[in-house]
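Worked example

This section walks through a single chain of length 579. The input is the sequence exactly as stored; nothing has been trimmed or padded.
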Amino acid sequence: MPLLIKISFDDDKNIKLLEIIPERKFYSNEIYDISIIEIFPNKDSINHFLELDYNYGKNEKEVKQNIYILHYPNGNESCLSYGNIEKIKAYEIEHTCSTEVGSSGAPIILLETFKVIGIHKGSGKNKADNNYGTLLKYPIIEFIEKNEIKNEIKNELKNELKNEIENEIKNEFKNEIIIKLKIGKKDLNKDIYILNYPYYTDSDGIRYETYNLKEMNKINTLMYIDNREIEYEKCKKFDKIGIYEIKVKLKINLIDQNCMFLGCKNIIDINLSKFETKYINNICAIFRDCNNLTSIDLSRFDTKNVKNMNAMLYGCNNLSSIDLSSFDTKNVTDMGCMFYDCNNLTSINLSSFDTKNVTNMNGMFYNCNNITSIDLSSFDTKKVTNMGCMFRDVDNITSIDLSSFDTKNVTDMSGMFSGCNNITSIDLSSFDTKNVTNMSGMFSGCNNITSIDLLSFDTKNVTNMSGMFYGCNNLTSIDLSSFDTKNVKNMSGMFSGCNNITSIDLLSFDTKNVTNMSGMFYGCNNLTSIDLSSFDTNHLINFKKIFFNCSKLKQIKISQSFSQKIKSEINETIQLIYI
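Given that input, the structure is written out below as tokens.
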């Protein structure tokens, strides 16, 4: 018995009955965000349907063509929005038509033919991003395959598309991943699923941890990787401690694999030899927090289209080696936190990396504390803007050659060498720092450095120098006469813990904009005298513990106004010389 559904085209008074054959001619896919139903409309409603273009989206010439979207923005009356096609990639189309909440599901109509070429899905995450939708071509391919329709729709398609459909159907489902899981006592008699995020929330709103899920019969034959439906070798409850293997077969060509295995704490090995990755453009955090992963072969991983590698191996702290020599990184823009907390890695060979388009290297090697050397001589850093915490807590490295680094566009160097406590010296004479605004904590915790030459540093745009030399307790002297500090607002803890410095010349410092000097010389317990007579403290607000624990400080040259402001922080035994 066919179903009858009611569809209102204009208003509640103009309802049409549509006859649906549900047995085989129905298709729905949450990735494309499209459902397809074959209908037999009543003859008086046939004019309400727009003609579909199944062949659209085959060549780049179609970009910039004019389109309309017929939609109901914010639930208001129907309207047409005009725009252009900006990009076509695989099944997605980006466009510039103006939309609002409630526009999702609206037909994208080509102005030239007035045929429907796709379905609008949503707007970009940022204001500058284009709106996007799904081309009809790919859902139609799967609809044909699922319902075994050989003639009705195919006869309407051009010969060229017929071949494409047959080839895509033939090759669509060959992606395979083999995953090894380590099952411990806590995992016994519990189902294991590999999910997009480190938790799963069922239809009742109950949250389950990825690695410790309770029984959920409703998803016994399904699991999700990055919200894309896949099939896998049925995973039964594990009743013995040991190593188990799961085969995962993916149904579609993947594009965005952000957080694919994030938090999968049971995984110890992933075999990607049959995983087709040529379409992927995002592998941000793909293996993040797989902290039992001991090995992974990425030699067949095709990364030529990847733009985002941020946090790719973040938290893989049992990984002792990784071969990335096959990686094509020419299109990558983000390598921030790429090896963050990989603290079992002893070396990384990145000589094959093409970094000419990278803008973010923030935290790239953060806490790789077993690495003893890194060769970055091949790195092209001319587009990098963020090097904050790049080598933070790489505390077994003894030297690092950055002479090839182009830093002219870098704005953030905060914490760049923080915690590199085995480095004794570092040559930064090639650094161009004219655009840097943040140098907070740049050398904090470098407690074996005895001298730093910063005479080449251009600091005119720096606003934050807080904790810049914090804990450099083997530094005996430092020449900052070239520093331009007129824009600095924060100098809190700048020399805190530099307990081997006996004197420091700050007469060139312009402090008129500084608001925070709290703990600036905290713990400089070998400092005997200091001249701060040039300090302008009109805007100073926070100066708490500025000289705390400076046990040998006997003399301060200071202005009258400055001394009145900070007198509560000055020990009575210290001689004040007013200038």
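What to look for: The chain has three helices and 22 strands.
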